[in-house]
Amino acid sequence: MDITQQVAEGAAHVAAVSPFLSQFSLFILAIFIGYYVVWSVTPALHTPLMAITNAISSVIIVGALIAAGPADMSIAKILGILAIGLAAVNIFGGFAVTQRMLAMYKKKK
Fold it and tell me: In sequence order, what DSSP letters do the residues of 7-74 get, joined into one string?
């Protein structure tokens, strides 16, 4: 068996992996990377991190609205609606936490 046949068989094996499995694997990797990135941030950077997280969540809502938009009921629509709800909670919670942290630095009268 020469190298071209081995490459062709390898490519066929990669093409046989289901799209759900590859996307789910990417999702799990993103969870672990996000967890370790957020927990390694120093406390002084938490407020800017929350601002960036709010910006990312707003992009997630745009993508979720696109996914939830079609008229037919599908798993993408259900996940899009779920993503809209979770991202909205994240955005509003992030703004509440940011306002509370900024209030700590105001001078008391």
Answer: HHHHHHHHHHS-HHHHHHHHHHHHHHHHHHHHHTS-GGGHHHHHHHHHHHHHHHHHHHHHHH-SSS--
